[in-house]
Amino acid sequence: MNSQVPLGECVPASTRYAVSVSLPTWQDNVDYELGAPRVLERMVSGYPRFFIAKPVQALVALVKDRFALPNEAAMVFPSLACAQRCVAFIYDQAPKQHSAELAYGLPAPGQVRVVQYVAEPVNKKAAALDAIGSNLESPIAIYCVLLPADLFPLAKQYWQHTGNGISARLADYCLHIARVNEEYEQEVRPYSPASRGGTAQRSKGRGSGYHRNAGRVSPNRATDEIQSHETGIEADAYMEERFGRNCDPKHAAEMKAVLRRRIAGALSEEEQKQGAQVERGVTGLSSSDVYLVATGMSAVYYTHLALLGMRGGKSVCFGFPYTDTLKILEKFGPGAYFLGHGEGSDYDELERILERHTMDQDPIQAIFTECPSNPLLKTADLSRLRDLADRHSVALVVDETIGSFANVDVLSWADVVVSSLTKVFSGDSNVMGGSIVLNPNRSLYSSLRTAMGTVFEDLMWCEDAVFLERNSRDFMKRVPGINRNALAVAELLRASNKVAQVRYPKFTTADNYARIMRSTSEAGYGGLLSVEFVGGESASRAFYDGLACCKGPSLGTNFTLASPYTILAHFTELEWAAKYGVHADLVRVSIGLEPLDELLAMFQAALASIPSAKEHTR
After folding, report:
1. In contact, 149 and 110? CB cutoff 8 Å
2. Residue 230: pLDDT over 60
3. Confidence of residue 595 (pLDDT cuts 50, 70, 90)
4. d(CA 21, CA 13)
5. Strand, helix or coil at 116?
6. For the purposes of burial, counting CB atoms within 10 Å of the CB of 124, is it exposed (0-12), middle (13-18) or buried (19 or more)?
7. What whole-number distance in Å separates Cα of residue 433 and Cα of residue 452?
8. Could you tell me which residues are beta bridge partners of residue 437?
9. Chain segment 135-146, per-residue pLDDT in tens
10. Are residues 309 and 451 in contact, defined by beta-carbon separation less than 8 angstroms?
11. What's the chain's average pLDDT?
């Protein structure tokens, strides 16, 4: 069994909109974080909130070519509200993050601005034949934030934290419209100077100003980028239509409705017979309580934004979360308390914080937690958090991404459940998505519905909805197989004398997980585990390098995917992360659906790659 993909290539291999990238050795990951050219120059893909996808880079180049001033950078967003929030974030964070190491120039009023780019076909007859364009109610408007190049890292932070950047498929469609328009103008005005002055001729030759993790695209290559992307789009469309795997994009609205019902557990009897859903166990829950967003982090961000609109107070992050969750709580609004261990005395400290703020008439707005957490796989005591939340009228927000609603019931305890649909719900690692679910039986429900109505926008691009619906049809059938495989791998690793610790919900805060685990025979502990070795980093390196599977960011894939998680997520704050048990030598593995005997053989071979104690002393 060998599923390794060459450095910098898409994971899965040859997948146009892959949401991971191959970093097959430990040193590849370190060098990626250090910005080594040998890695960055080979990257054709990456996790979309960290690596600006090639189609998005090309669209940025096109928009910059039309609107930007010299020495300006740009970032594109799918709505005016997203762009305006990015501008506000830059003005807020520039002085806060300004330091000797990060010498951001403080922007003058109006120096960071928003321009609109409209992708509208010139040839209306041709547009009527376009599967997407013929079903759009209005032209596509993209909003571009233009800013001094030295401030670009702040725009990139907003993109990364909130997950509100445009999708690669949307960018590709905008590039398609631009190419079609240029060709049409050349046909109807073949001798016009304007027709000869296409995107390439109009370019001023400026660089993109992208952060090192984003790759680089020069505006004078915009036309070439459009044409090369167009070829790939046509091939992808042919494959999907030829083999009937996707619905036509014109059905996107219906697909979103199906997704909301699937997540709410409200499918028809026939759909339930096909194994498409599990009951959520919450009386009165309907698809109208489900909000679809562009990414998992968008789910966290919009929930936080709605709560800020309701109360405007601080939040509490209980347990060590995925990195951008904490960044959202800290950077947007008045800040957050971080109880990073998520067990033991942290419960007492949480109670003290809530009581103090209640007495000061400055109530905490929400408790955020993950069940289980990423990457430590800890599960909070939701009954205890629920009791504290009720006593102090605080919202309890639970991220179920790792457990998934196929395995755990967290909605019965929470006011709001957020999830990244990019992960196991999709499984194919080729589309981004997220969801927010409100519990209709909680006292804050009406207020949350109203608050969500003021901030929520449906920004899931139609093609992304179509792919997500297709991928998730067999979600409930895939999860049990992943559960069985992951448990077997976890037990294999625990039995090795080379392993110091395996973090997996069955062995980590197990009683708390058992209380929220569904009672169905198919429910299990999920597909994610983390492992540390007796030999420390050298052993982790040997194991990781010897593991013959796909290796890169993301999780919840139908195939096994490994990463040195702490190196990728906390490279600039390794000592801080280690204080909470997230050590630099931790290897995180998302187990897939490969044949179990092949999986176990692969992990046994990787363990054999670690030198024995005698070999360490030679």
Report:
1. no
2. no
3. very high
4. 9
5. strand
6. exposed
7. 18
8. 290, 417
9. 676 789 999 999
10. yes
11. 88
Stretch 538-545: mean pLDDT, rounded?
98
Identify whether the C-beta of residue 55 lies closer than 8 Å to the C-beta of residue 229.
Answer: yes
* Torsion sign over Cα 500, 503, 504, 508: positive
Q: Across residues 153-179, what is the average pLDDT?
A: 95
d(CA 436, CA 418): 5
pTM of the model: 0.89
Rounded distance, CA 464 to CA 171, Å?
12
* Predicted local confidence at residue 266, as pLDDT: 63
Task: Report long-range pairs for 197-205 (Cβ below 8 Å, ≥24 apart).
Answer: 198/223, 199/62, 199/65, 199/223, 199/226, 200/224, 202/65, 202/66, 203/65, 204/65, 204/70
- Residue 272: pLDDT above 90? no
Strand partners, 115: 144
Helix, strand or coil, per DSSP, at residue 493 = helix
Please give the order of strands across the beta sheet that includes 499-503.
499-503, 528-533, 587-590, 561-563, 550-551
Query: How many C-alpha atoms does 512 have within 13 Å on its Cβ side?
Result: 24
Bridge partners of 72, per DSSP, are: 148
Distance of CA 27 to the CA centre of its chain: 24
DSSP secondary-structure letter at 293? E
Contact in structure between 368 and 341 (CB atoms under 8 Å): no
Please identify which residue in the block is written with the tokens 């995917």: 561
Does residue 243 surpass a pLDDT of 60? no
| Cβ contacts of 36 within 8 Å, gap of 6 or more | none
Q: Does residue 239 carry a pLDDT above 80?
A: no
Helix axes 596-608, 475-494, angle to 10 degrees: 30
605: tokens are 């071979």
pLDDT in tens, 368-423: 999 999 999 999 999 999 999 999 999 999 999 999 999 999 999 999 999 999 99
CB atoms within 10 A of CB 542: 20
Long-range pairs of 195-200 with CB within 8 A, sequence gap ≥ 24: 198/223, 199/62, 199/65, 199/223, 199/226, 200/224
3-state helix, strand, coil in the chain (%, to 5): 45, 15, 40
When pLDDT is averaged across residues 156-166 and rounded to a whole number, the result is 96
Return the higher-pLDDT residue of 117 and 192.
117
Give phi and psi for 521, each to the nearest 5: -65, -20
Using CB atoms within 10 Å of the CB of residue 207, give its burial: 0 to 12 exposed, 13 to 18 middle, 19+ buried.
Answer: middle
Token pair of 331 as six digits: 């950077």
